[in-house]
Amino acid sequence: MITRRFLCGCLAGALPFAKTVVQAQSLECAVFTPDRQKATAPDEAITRLKVGNERFTAGKSINCDLMAQVRETANNQSPFAAIVGCIDSRVPPELVFDQRIGVNTDIIGSLEYSTKVASAKTIVILGHNFCGAIKSAVDDVKLGNITALLQNFQPALATLDNGDGHRDSHNDRLVQKVAEANARLTAASLTQRSPIIKELVDAKQLTIAAAMHDITTGKVTWLS
Length: 224
Ligand SMILES: [Zn+2]
Description:
By secondary structure, this protein is an alpha/beta fold. 44% of the residues lie in helices and 13% in strands. It is built from eleven helices and five strands; from the N terminus they run E-H-H-H-H-E-H-H-E-H-H-H-H-H-E-E. It has helices at residues 20-29, 34-38, 42-57, 66-73, 93-96, 108-117, 132-138, 146-150, 154-157, 172-193, 195-202, and strands at residues 2-7, 81-86, 122-128, 207-213, 220-222. Strands 1-2-3-4-5 form a five-stranded mixed sheet, with helices on both faces. The radius of gyration is 18 Å and the shape is globular. Bound molecules: zinc ion.
């Protein structure tokens, strides 16, 4: 249920004679270069994602020439963020954060690649409400390979207590609590499971954040 995506964002610079709007758009559409990536602090990477989500929820996503970005990233990528999210069709991170080209798959190994090799500045664990996988885990569904997959949610399920009410996927508040706990615990586990990621975080070259995407509004809320 988890996909990973690198977000190859955009280069700020100066185009002295361009009109302001056109300038802003063309700069947002420029892919990250290694120099720009190097100059981007982890906090700035998070800010880019926040601002992008604000554009998305305001209906002001930027139209870029995606094929131009394909050409510009064909031989090189300099992503500023790696997003770990649900494969759910309602949560495509490039759209939610109003960012563009750059996709990859597989978990910790990919995150080590995206941060240590490709130098992404932040990892975002992005959960969402009304998640089918979380609901299935809450209901303890047994079905094919899904059974093993749902084992991954056991630590989040362990955060439930009597005050959360009946453990049932129709209990929206309980499902939300498990989803948020899963995002937080996954984010916290990365430095324990990967010495490479821990080293980057300790050196302040990388931040790890957990966030929740509301699929009814498109808004992303940051948990940490
Ligand atoms: Zn989901």
